[in-house]
Amino acid sequence: MATQQKKNSIPLDEEPFRKLKPVESFSLFSAKDIQLFQEGSHDRLYEKFGSHTVTYEGVAGTYFAVWAPNAAYVSVIGDFNEWNTYSHTLLPRWDKSGIWEGFLPGIKEDQLYKYFIRSNSGEELRKGDPYANRWELRPKTASVVSNLEYKWKDAAWMKSRGKKNSLKSPFSVYEMHLGSWRRPDANNHEVFYSYKEIGAMLVPYVKEMGFTHVEFMPVMEHPFDGSWGYQLTGFYAPTARYGTPQEFMALVDAFHHAGIGVILDWVPSHFPYDDHGLYRFDGTHTYEYADMRKGFHPDWNSYVFNYARNEVRSFLLSNALFWLDKFHIDGLRVDAVASMIHLDYSRKAGQWEPNEQGGNENLEAISFLKEMNSTIYSRFPDVQTIAEESTSFYGVSRPVFMGGLGFGMKWMMGWMNDTLDYFKKDPYFRKWYHNQITFSIMYTFSENFMLPLSHDEVVHGKSPMIYKMPGDDWQQFANLRLMYSYMFTHPGTKLLFMGDEIADTKEWNYKSELSWDLLKHKTHEGLQQYVKALNKLYTSEPILYETQFDINTFEWINANDHENSVLIYARKSPEGEVILIALNMTPVPREDYPVAIPWKNSFKEVLNSDAAVFYGSNVVNTGTLKPRPGKYGQPYDLLLRLPPLGASILKMQSR
Predict the structure, then answer these.
(1) What superkingdom does the record give (predicted)?
(2) Catalytic residue among 129, 215, 388, 447
(3) CATH code where residue 630 lies
């Protein structure tokens, strides 16, 4: 007769459990798996490590596997055994791989667990599962037995997404933080909308605004809200803040149904020192470099992955592929690449050690990134990887076979810094900084650049985007529309952080939500409508995206009028089509401004940032503009009305 069982404990005295031990010898690993794991090239470890519900000897239960090479003893503890450290001891593999594993009969989904690890030094640790697909809601820290079963409904998107994610297609990315876009209570940061609730509001909004992709700041499990997701403990789990893995899958599915790609921020550069995380996982520096000159990151008070250890490389490689495979993600924006590939990043002399060749490059990190990108593009050729890399390191977005790192795109941090610095200046003084706004074209085709105005620019006292702009209220909005015009017509793909499209008047705060009530003001509504119009222009004019990384498709028409702070340039197609962009960086409208052009064709204005509908002063160009005989060094002149602090975007008409 069964004895009285406590809540969540396993009735091991009942059939069919009596014929099985608390932990049975069982493995999902093949000899090839171990070989690839130890070579650093295993890209599907999520199918082996972690917790997996299986049936053994006719009994349902869960298989557990964890890498703890310096452990003397490992057991599974959880709510099913009242966190007993001795009742469910895992078995070390015979091949000295450092893997501990075993089948636990009766362990079902939704049960909480951790690994109890006694290191060879005698230190005792209680760690979450590095490969767990689900975790308890913070501040609790246990892993949760779960599965990733989901019936996807995005077959049409997956079949055709190669075209949507191509470098010859428009990329207009809406970067966002899931918890603070909207909240059930703007003043209560402990309450969140679920993945389903967010999707019901977010998907139609992103679609209506005309963005092609959404980029989520890290959704992987993290213990501290204030890290914004960049200090991860659960690399293989969507955060429980908003729901289950399946509910996150449904959110991705919904975006795909709307024709919108999903990019994830991914952080292979560092991790925090929380007791339940990766830091000193088995009592030694398992995942991080032992030498703190390489293993500790001073900027973020966190620890750096040991890219020289093959098992760690396999962990990260598998993690990158995991999100693309199991969650149908369309791209990874890789965080802090500069810190990965430079040994002296944020370190003074004496705080870092040169590599074996005497340089400052982290050769192991560089080789890892090359292998990661090569593997991703071989298995998922219809996705993109995007590097946040802030230095002049060669070939970040060039193929590995050409000596590059192999990313699809690279954030253009120089453009971002120069552009914001220029637009902060009073228009009266801009003529002395003309080269600052033209300089980016000198190097814009050296990489496949994405132009970012990201979350980093509206936090920590940097001020919201609207208050970076000089002048009175009207001039601030005119400047912002002008800057966005420059961004969307400049070569390269685009990224805009949430709230920038409505000119939020406060810095981004992860504890609150965007200031949606501002849209009752015509100034803010006008800016939102202008961003929508820019997205429509960018995504509907192939000239602006099909050859966005080709140097032959950009031409300066007038880059020298620094006295009037006017810039005029053309975006061209190989077939001879032209879009002409005229930017007036001062509040002085200019009538009959002569533009010397080589084309006989007429032009028609297709977008003007000063139009009344966007809350401008309506200095626009109407009708068809016909060129006149040239007086300024070209066969023809075009006379334009240049709006104050405005952009006039014109399209060549067929003869």
Answers:
(1) Bacteria
(2) 388
(3) 2.60.40.1180
Written in H, E and C, the secondary structure of 629-648 is ECCCCCCEEEEEEECCCEEE
Q: Say if pTM beats, i.e. exceeds, 0.85.
A: yes
Residue 18 has a pLDDT of 60
**Sign (positive or negative) of CA dihedral 409, 414, 415, 420:** positive
From CA 14, how far away is CA 12, in angstroms rounded? 5
256 assigned to some structural domain: no
The catalytically annotated residue of 129, 215, 282, 335 is: 335
Cis preceding linkage at 16, omega within 30: yes
Dump pLDDT digits (tens) for 57-114.
999 999 999 999 999 999 999 999 999 999 999 999 999 999 999 999 999 999 999 9
| Rounded Cα distance, 570 and 547, in Å | 13
Q: Is residue 116 part of a domain?
A: yes
pLDDT greater than 50 at residue 583: yes
For the chain, give the mean pLDDT.
95
State the CATH number of the domain containing residue 103. Answer: 2.60.40.10
Rounded Cα distance between 330 and 162, Å, is: 9
pLDDT tens digit string along 468-483? 999 999 999 999 999 9
- The per-residue pLDDT for range 556-574, each reduced to its tens digit, is 999 999 999 999 999 999 9
Q: How far is CA 435 from CA 451, 554, 562, 596, 605, in A?
A: 18, 17, 8, 21, 27
User: Which residue reads 């140097």 in tokens?
Assistant: 551
Q: Is residue 105 included in any domain, yes or no? A: yes
Report the 3 state secondary structure along 581-617: EEEECCCCCEEEEEEEECCCCCEEEEEECCCHHHCCC
CB-based contact 47:318 (threshold 8 Å): no
Distances (CA, A) of 327 to 122, 224, 263, 381, 401: 39, 24, 11, 16, 29
311 is catalytic: no
Domain count, the chain: 2
288 part of the active site: no
The boundaries of the domain holding residue 96 are: 31-145
